[in-house]
Design goal:
The strands form two sheets. This protein has a four-stranded parallel β-sheet, with helices on both faces. Strands 1-2 form a two-stranded parallel sheet. The chain folds into two domains: 86 residues, no CATH class; 111 residues, 3-Layer(aba) Sandwich (Rossmann fold). It starts with a helix and ends with a helix. It is built from eleven helices and six strands. It is of the alpha/beta class. The longest helix is centred in the C-terminal third of the chain and has 17 residues. It is globular and about 45 Å long.
């Protein structure tokens, strides 16, 4: 992500004091603990002009749920990566090259809460050498859902297998998403199935030359 943003002319700072956005605690019902983590997040990034996040899940937490914790003064500076590139940098071709066939997985938070669907696809469409093949279950959950995968492993595993079968049918070399948690879930299912399909974050593809 840093390589892509610097290529577009932005100065990137990575505060070493940053931790979590607070979503795991928030989703598990620990509001007080989530608020403390969120307050730390806001303090660490207080001086940032833009806060660019390579995760639809984390972006959703900050923009949509900090208000439920009584916090909202940073949400207008927070951007998911693909939307930042298109709407702030106003670029849809970052000069990337990736030779291969990819399919795209719509992560739940990005698609359903942030309404991000076309943005990553628009950026992928301008990557030289890349062929995007849509899978049938692109919008279906991968089964991770944070603690959901721990509490309901059998259901989570079944959902992941459905997703992997849909990916396999595209004959793609790689599956791309904007959420590392989804990619972790999908990668685990791919490995268990003995497949050679790669999992890549959108930023990795956009940084390819």
């Amino acid at each position: 992500m840093t390589e892509v943003l610097e290529r577009l002319g932005f100065e990137v700072d990575f505060p070493q004091a940053q931790t979590c956005c607070g979503q795991p605690a928030f989703n598990s019902g620990y509001s007080n603990e989530a608020r403390r983590v969120a307050e730390h997040f806001l303090k660490v990034f207080d001086a940032a002009e833009y806060i660019v996040v390579p995760s639809g899940s984390c972006t959703t937490m900050i923009k949509n749920h900090y208000t439920e914790l009584g916090l909202n003064h940073a949400t207008d500076r927070v951007w998911e990566l693909s939307r930042f590139i298109l709407e702030v940098a106003k670029v849809d071709d970052v000069g990337a090259r990736f030779d291969g066939i990819v399919t795209y997985h719509d992560s739940c938070h990005a698609l359903r809460e942030l309404r991000i669907k076309e943005e990553p696809r628009r950026l992928l469409a301008n990557v030289r050498g890349l062929e995007l093949r849509e899978m049938e279950a692109a919008e279906e959950c991968c089964g991770f859902g944070g603690t959901f995968s721990v509490k309901f492993p059998e259901i989570s595993g079944a959902m992941a297998r459905t997703k992997i079968e849909s990916i396999r049918k595209t004959q793609a070399d790689a599956v791309v998403s904007i959420d590392s948690s989804c990619l972790m879930q999908i990668d685990g299912a791919i490995r268990r199935a003995g497949l050679s399909i790669r999992t890549l974050h959108l930023a990795e593809v956009l940084a390819s030359r």
